[in-house]
UniProtKB/TrEMBL annotation:
It holds the Pfam family GSDH. Residues 34-43 have a biased composition (Polar residues). Residues 87-417 form the Glucose/Sorbosone dehydrogenase domain. Gene3D superfamilies: TolB, C-terminal domain. Residues 1-21 form the signal peptide. This is Glucose/arabinose dehydrogenase, beta-propeller fold. Keywords: Signal. Residues 23-65 are annotated as: Disordered.
Amino acid sequence: MKLSRLILLSAIGMATLGASCSEERATEQENEQQEPVATTPEQDCQPIDRGTANVPEQKPTFEGQTRACEMKTDSTAYQVQVLTKSLKKPWAVEPLPDGNLLVTEKGGQMRIVSATGQVGNPITGIPKVDARGQGGLLDVALSPKFGSDRMIYWSYTEPRQGGNATSVARAVLSEDRSRVENVQVIFQAQPTYDGDKHFGSRLNFGPDGMLYITLGERSDIEIRPQAQQMNSHMGKIIRIAPDGKVPNDNPFVNKENHLPEIWSVGHRNVQAATFNDAGELWIVDHGAQGGDEVNKVEKGKNYGWPVVTFGEEYSGQPIPSAVTTKEGFVDPIYYWDPVIAPSGAQFYTGNAFPDWKGNLFVGGLRAQALVRLRIENNRVTGEEHLLKDRDQRIRDVRQGPDGALYVVTDQENGELWKISPKQ
C-alpha cells in the first residue's frame, strides 16, 4: 500500500485517547476473571490465566499468536538477592565488565551500584532531563569497545523550546567513575512536542556495530499518526553509527521526504528491545488496551500502528479504521490481551541457567512479573510469569557477565535484584 494512503488511513477520525498508557494503568481494577482458551496445538496446554480479553471479538491471525502454554521453572533452580532498595524510580540497569552495575533513575541521576549493593553518588555531567510523566533519564548502554574507550550511551527526554523529545548522548566515563566527560548529543528525535508520554528509548548495539534506538509516537491524538509518516521519527526504530552518522545501507537513505535514520516503521511505544544470538533484533511494543506485541524487526518493514493493531482505546472504543492484519504490514509474532505492559528485554545466552538458554525475558509493569518466553522457529511456544509473589512492577532486565539476570523495579524506592542459580 502506498505511503500516502497509509497516512490518510491513520489520520481518519481519531477517537479521544485515554489519559494514560498501559504502563500507567497498573492500579486499575483487574477485569473479571474467566478461563482462557488455549490457542496452541499442544495437548493438555493450559495458558496463564490472564482473565477476560479486552477485545474478545478480535481473533489471532494464526494459531499460537496469543496465550501460549504455561511453562514452570522449578523454584529450587534460582534465588533472588535484593542488592538494594534505595534507588529512585530506576529505569535501566547495565552490567559493567567488573560485576558492578550502571543504573539510571528517571529523575536524571545515573549511579553505579556495586556487586554487593552499595549505591554510589550520582555521576556528574549528565545533561538536564524533562522528567514529567514518562519522561526523564531512560536507557543506558555500554559502547561495544567499552574496555578501551570507556564510552557510555544514554537516552533521555530532552527539554527543548516548545516541548521535548527523545535524545541520545554519549560520553567517556571517567576512570574514577564519578563523572562523564566530553558529552556529545548524537541524536535528537524530531519533531519536538509538548507531551509527557511514549518516549520509547531502548538502546541496543547490533552485531553490525550500529546503534538501534526505539522511539514512541508520543501517544496524543494530534501526533499519533506520525508513526506512519516518514518525515517524522515518531513511532520508529532508528539505526545510526556510534558517532551519530547515518549508515549508507539504511533502507530510506536518499529517499525524498524520508528521514534517513529510520530502520523500521509503525511502532507505538517500544520500551523493550534486544538482540538474540543469531543477531536478530526483537522488540516488545506497548500496545493500546489489549495489544502488547512481540515483533522481530527487519530492515524497512512496517509494523502497523495505528493502522494495523490488536487492542482498543482506553475509552473502550475501537481504534479508528484499524484492523488486526493487512497485506503489506508485519503481523506480530505474539500479543497479549490483557496487556503485560512490557519494559526491558533480554535473550538469555549464559550458562548459569541451561534450561533458560535462548529464552526471551521481558519486564512486566502491569503484569508485575518477569515474563519468560520460549521461542521456536519464530513462534512463542511457552510462557512463564516469574516473581509474581513480589508484587513489583519490573522495569528492566539485563544479563550480566556472570550469567545472572539483573532486574530493576519501577517505584519511588526502586529495587535492584540479582537472579542467580540457587546454591
